[in-house]
Amino acid sequence: MLGEYLADEGFTVTTSGNGHDGADLALSGRFAAVILDIMLPRINGIEVLRRLRQESDIPVIMLTARGDDVDRVVGLELGADDYIAKPYYPRELVARLRAVLRRMGTTRTTAPLSRGALLLDPARRATLWEGRPVDLTATEFNLLEALLRAGPAVATKEELSLTALGRTRQRYDRSIDVHVSNLRQKLARASGGAIEIETIRGVGYRLTARP
User: Fold this and answer.
1) Given this model, what pLDDT does residue 128 score?
2) What whole-number distance in Å separates Cα of residue 98 and Cα of residue 116?
3) For residue 82, what are the contacts with CB-CB under 8 A and spacing of at least 6?
4) Largest distance between two CA atoms of the chain
5) DSSP of 149-201, one letter per residue?
6) Domain ranges in the chain?
7) What's the number of CA atoms in the CB half-sphere (13 Å) around residue 129?
8) High-pLDDT (> 90) share of the chain, %
9) Residues 193, 198, 199, 204: what is their CA dihedral angle, to the nearest 10 degrees?
């Protein structure tokens, strides 16, 4: 039913009834985004997401049970770009999907951004540290771009939610915190701690670099 609804909204849709085949399809290079249910036979959605993030940065929206905070946080920690709780309105899912695709395809400017030896190229959707690629998910890339554009100013969680997730931040929503935590770890590994994301308690985050 969801596939039919998305097709009516203009999307080309391929569906899979189990996690094993779905993961293979998602990694085929034929698709722009993945809508991934947690509850799948053979391999559940969490395992599918883990496999996808080992090999691809394709945007992933997870479908979770309402109130299931554990699956939601685990999914975000593993690199899901967004989530929506079931039951949901199909129009909301379509809006989330379009927001993810829009963030993948558009930027305010294609000029590269840098901080120290860190280079972010919006045109190529590439991130480099001292010329070496840094693998980021679509949402992590958007977060890093927003932090770089903010310069020495603090980027609020509300601003980051709109920029990176395409939606207004809700009270008690930890999505941005989890995505920032993932990004912080990747930058620390790539730069040896030279690039840091500073937490401004109660406000947001700021990107800092050691000389």
Assistant:
1) 96
2) 33
3) 61, 62, 96, 99, 100, 139, 165, 167, 175
4) 55
5) HHTTSPEEHHHHIIIIISSPPPTT--HHHHHHHHHHHHHHHHHTTSEEEEEET
6) 1-106, 107-211
7) 15
8) 47
9) -130
pLDDT tens for 34-91 read 999 999 998 999 999 999 999 888 899 999 886 667 878 888 899 999 989 888 888 8
- Residue 67 backbone phi and psi in degrees, to 5: 85, 0
Q: How far is CA 131 from CA 114, 120, 127, in A?
A: 12, 11, 9
Q: What is the Cα–Cα distance from 210 to 61, expressed in whole angstroms?
A: 35
With a threshold of 0.70, does the pTM exceed it? no
Which residue has better confidence, 97 or 110? 97
What's the pLDDT score for residue 202? 84
Question: Rounded distance, CA 175 to CA 73, Å?
Answer: 8
1-106: CATH topology is Rossmann fold (3.40.50)
Annotation: CATH topology of 107-211: Arc Repressor Mutant, subunit A (1.10.10)
